[in-house]
Write a structure and sequence with these properties.
Number of helices: 16
Radius of gyration: 21 Å
Largest sheet: 2 strands, antiparallel
Shape: globular
Helix content: 55-70%
Number of domains: 1
Structural class: mainly alpha
Strand order of the largest sheet: 1-2
Length: 430
């Protein structure tokens, strides 16, 4: 088999300027709040220096993105937007309409604006600088945040350690969610291990494994383990070994739930697994409220869950699921395009997991499915690590599919400007 098909190239014919790189990492990191904030402060529109800094970052990113779109349009070379991005724009539009019924309109408008900036910025980044470079920056950003959490664990433990069910957990929330950035960095570390010096690989693996263990995030343990098993099963040369690996993946969830987690009972209670740490009860309550009060237009994106979730459980400040968040905030008008978008992308991602795909395609498929799983259990597609990664891959997966169709056409490819099969100039830069 051609060796080049299994090389994850990080080179690009066009390198992003320093401003774009800095903006990418700022948006990916949140930026970090570096303090705990009362959930009610957002509802009351309380402004502090951290809020001002974060707002400025997102406003600057939005202005820059709009300026670039205007410049490309004036030059007569507007970028082509795929179906998933159009669905994302439609979903964001309906979420924006919920601002008028929100009890905290500034919070809703800000979160909707963040999601729009995420979509447009990452779409432009993928188009100009390539999929491989974007994943490389996701890896670097995740590792940097993990190392920042590790340093804080010694320098400022109260900032990253939190008491949960009588056990101290390295959650890292004021800097980044340790379970999320630890999952991204560990999975991508394995996928990139051939391009990293051996001493660096083992050092990073030791640090990341320790941080994930201290985080006591069961979801992260499961996603990392499943992704690593899938990666090695895919790379095994013998058909028999691959079948053994895939068979193990089928039984792994049961082994993980019934044997591995009970063995860790003293560190994290296992009786909350079946309710997803209270999430299922919260979801039932929020869905009932959504359908009873405003099924089609919602009650205000992010603000409704902030109010109702706190009323249900003082320890929960969000809906803890992107789908419930969208339904409660924007109603069925927002949920329908959100569901279609996620199903569309998940279908493409699963196709990228097969052995005849390149390492870059496999990486994109794996990270997207991991991102979707995190979103199902509480990730925020509007901003931060989850938002930047989700919308980057929302642009990358269709672009890579078009690239493959153009490289191995089964029918003549239309050169019409609006044709979804028209291959743009080097869209992957790989």
């Amino acid at each position: 088999m051609n060796q080049s098909r299994h090389t994850w190239s990080l080179d690009s014919t066009k390198r992003p300027p320093t401003f774009v790189v800095v903006m990418f990492f700022l948006l990916f990191s949140g930026p970090p709040s570096l303090r705990l904030r009362d959930p009610g402060d957002s509802l009351d529109s309380v402004i502090d220096p951290t809020v001002i800094v974060q707002s400025l970052v997102w406003v600057v990113a939005g202005i820059w993105t709009l300026f670039q779109l205007r410049k490309d349009s004036r030059r007569g070379c507007p970028m082509w937007m795929g179906g998933p991005d159009k669905l994302g724009i439609l979903m964001i539009l309906f979420l924006g309409l919920s601002t008028w019924v929100s009890e905290a309109p500034l919070l809703t408008a800000f979160k909707v604006g963040q999601m729009l900036v995420c979509l447009l910025f990452t779409w432009m980044f993928i188009y100009r600088y390539g999929v491989a470079r974007c994943l490389h920056y996701v890896f670097l950003g995740s590792v940097a945040l993990c190392l920042a959490i590790a340093v804080s664990a010694f320098a400022a433990p109260d900032l990253v350690f939190f008491l949960d069910d009588g056990v101290m957990r390295l959650r890292g929330d004021p800097i980044a969610v340790m379970g999320t950035v630890g999952t991204y960095s560990t999975i991508l570390l394995f996928l990139k291990h051939q391009q990293i010096p051996r001493w660096m690989f083992w050092s990073l693996l030791a640090v990341l494994s320790t941080l994930l263990a201290l985080s006591l995030t069961r979801q992260a343990w499961f996603l990392v383990s499943a992704s690593v098993f899938l990666y090695f099963s895919r790379r095994s040369k013998g058909a028999f070994l691959r079948w053994i690996g895939f068979a193990f993946l089928l039984v792994f969830p049961f082994v993980f739930v019934y044997y591995i987690l009970p063995a860790l009972q003293e560190y994290r209670a296992t009786d909350t697994i079946w309710s997803l740490t209270g999430r299922t009860d919260l979801w039932v309550y929020l869905v009932q409220v959504a359908f009873a009060r405003s099924a089609w237009t919602g009650l205000g994106y992010y603000s409704a869950s902030r109010i109702l979730a706190l009323d249900f459980n003082s320890g929960m400040g969000t809906a803890h699921s992107i789908f419930v968040e969208v339904l409660l905030g924007g109603g069925l008008l927002s949920l329908i395009p959100c569901m279609v978008l996620c199903i569309w992308l998940a279908r493409q991602a699963f196709r990228f997991l097969s052995k005849n795909r390149t390492d870059l395609e496999f990486a994109c498929g794996t990270i997207f499915l991991v991102t979707l799983a995190i979103g199902l259990l509480g990730g925020d597609f509007a901003s931060g690590e989850i938002g930047i990664t989700f919308w980057s891959l929302a642009a990358a997966l269709p672009a890579m599919s078009r690239h493959r169709v153009a490289a191995h056409p089964i029918a003549p490819i239309s050169n019409h400007p609006e044709s979804p099969l028209r291959l743009r100039t080097n869209p992957l830069h790989t």
